[in-house]
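Researcher: Can you fold this with zinc ion in place?
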Amino acid sequence: MKCTVIGFWGGFPAEGGATSSYLFEKDNFSLLIDVGSGALSTVQKYKHVMDIDAVVLSHYHHDHIADIGVLQYAWLVHSYIREEKEILPIYGHKENKEKFEALSHECTEGIAYDPNSELKVGPFSISFLKTNHPVPCYGMRISDGEDVIVYTADTTYKEEWIDFAKDADLLITDCNFYEKQDGSAAGHMTSKEGATIASNANVGELLLSHLPQYGDTNDLVLEAEKYFSGKIQLAKTGLVWEKDSI
Ligand code: ZN
């Protein structure tokens, strides 16, 4: 499978950027995981908005869903242009009724996933792990039958990540804090914590994401390298992961 980073900032996008959003592609199927602020503008560099086949959301914080409303408008406008109505499935959890119901619109349908079951979306199988975060949030283990990518979404460190991420080809971590900080009150991880999971889970590569807007983010890589000996990269817009390609 191919994974393209659309947005990677935590909290709010830096100028010209986007918050959490990742495009997963396989066999002509395009899945968008989270749709943060700036994601709709950015994703169009890589994909026509009507060629997105499904969306899966980790949780309902603004920096993961801010562009859902304009994505719904985009599909509505294109339904007029094309004179045919297509419905985009948007999968989310049901633990916030109001937010879940807002996923359904004229051209989108909110579909609840059961976090205790595997979700099949096109060629992808997704299993979930509830994270430690101020609101209900689910990390995902995404497989296409060949490669496995684990996305922590937003979370503090917890031991369960090690089993959940076991032997994944790529681990995308919440790295909103530097090593010396404590992100736990905010519900996020440090570079050290993400790298510790990567090492203990024996993943192939580590991608640090959900990045802070302050400090030198290259330091996050140097910090993570102390705890994980595999390949480590900082997320950036347009970064493509395919097995052995980065
Ligand atoms: Zn969050």
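Model: Folded with zinc ion in place. The chain has a mean pLDDT of 97.
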